[in-house]
Amino acid sequence: MAAEISSSVELILGRAGFNIIRRINASRYDAEVPPERRTGRITKNARTVLLAGFAGKGFWAVLNDFIKDNPEFYGSTEDIIDDYTVLQFKKVGELLYSSGVEFETVFPFGPSYMALDFVKLGALGGVGVPSLLGVLINPVYGPWISLRGAILTDTELDVYDAPLDDFDPCPSCSKPCIDACPAKTISHEGWDYRACLDYRHNSEDCGSSCASRRACPYGAEHQYGEQQLTHHQGFALQSYRRYTGLGK
Questions:
Q1: How many whole angstroms separate alpha carbon 99 and alpha carbon 186?
Q2: DSSP 8-state code for residue 159
Q3: pLDDT of residue 79
Q4: With bands split at pLDDT 50, 70 and 90, how would you rate the model's confidence at 231?
Q5: Residue 246: which pLDDT band, with cuts at 50, 70 and 90?
Q6: Has this prediction a pTM greater than 0.85?
Q7: Is beta strand 136-137 parallel, antiparallel or unpaired with respect to 145-153?
Q8: What is the mean pLDDT of residues 229-235?
Q9: Nearest to 227, CA basis, from 59, 69, 20
Q10: What does CATH list as the number for 3-153?
């Protein structure tokens, strides 16, 4: 992928509120994940993975401006963030197609949600490092990060983003996230996501927020607003109930 095409992709997604764009070498990623999560399961010609997402609360403002200008879009969607993501990635796809770039788009939601390891991609691209919370932590934004999609392309870049090798905050942290969790699903070993979701299914304590995530000392000023976090929490629980057949 030519540098100018990569810059154009960043411009399109940046205007749409995605302030995280990372370029990862597909071979390096494939070497660190099991066979079922490798790019070859999606396309045989992947050379570069363009990873995109958002950090902080700026995305929510951009999304709300979009909704104001396109009220019909809000009324026709099941999850506004997912569908908005797909819409913006389609614009990127049109650019890549017209430029003769072979590509495949993968999202961490919908039918292909397990096709790629997005946490591994984020770590390799320097978005953040794994944390006890089960999400990546960024030096600036803390755990307030959402990876939204990846584009696998058939062209190599001269330069790729690199991991944050000098950033590892959890070992030396006082770990307020552990005490903050009402379900005690955060420990020194990490996050017990099944116990977390089971607790949330049977309790309203965490329906609109996450005390452990809010307790993290990194990126406190970039925490999602109440409306945005309520949306994320609610949709994650809804997806869990649908997946397990637990209903509403």
A1: 46
A2: -
A3: 85
A4: confident
A5: low
A6: yes
A7: unpaired
A8: 81
A9: 59
A10: 3.40.109
SS3 per residue for 163-217: CCCCCCCHHHCCCHHHHHCCCCCEECCEECHHHHHHHHHHCCCCCCCCHHHHHCC
Residue reference for tokens 């205007």: 15
End-to-end CA, the chain: 45
Q: CB under 8 Å to 124, separation ≥6 — which residues? A: 24, 28, 29, 32, 161, 162, 163
Residue type, 98: S
- Show Cβ contacts of residue 2 under 8 Å, excluding neighbours closer than 6 positions: 99, 155
- Helices 3-15 + 80-98 axis angle, to 10: 150
pLDDT over threshold 70, residue 2: no
**Is the distance from CB of 153 to CB of 102 less than 8 angstroms?**
yes
pLDDT digits (tens, 9 = 90+) for 175-197: 999 999 999 999 999 999 889 98
Q: What letter would DSSP give residue 57?
A: S
What one-letter code names the amino acid at 39?
Answer: T
**C-alpha distances out from residue 116 to 34, 106, 113, 181, 195, Å:** 10, 8, 7, 29, 24
Which pLDDT score is estimated for 112?
87
Q: For residues 83, 49, 114 and 185, what is the CA-based torsion angle, rounded to 10 degrees?
A: -90
Angle CA 159–19–33, to nearest 5: 55
CA distance 17 to 62: 6
Which residue in this structure is represented by tokens 């590509």? 103
Give the pLDDT confidence score for residue 139 in this predicted structure. 97
Structure confidence by residue, pLDDT tens digits, 75-86: 777 789 999 999
In the chain, where the domains are located: 3-153, 170-244
Report the chain's C-alpha Rg in angstroms: 18
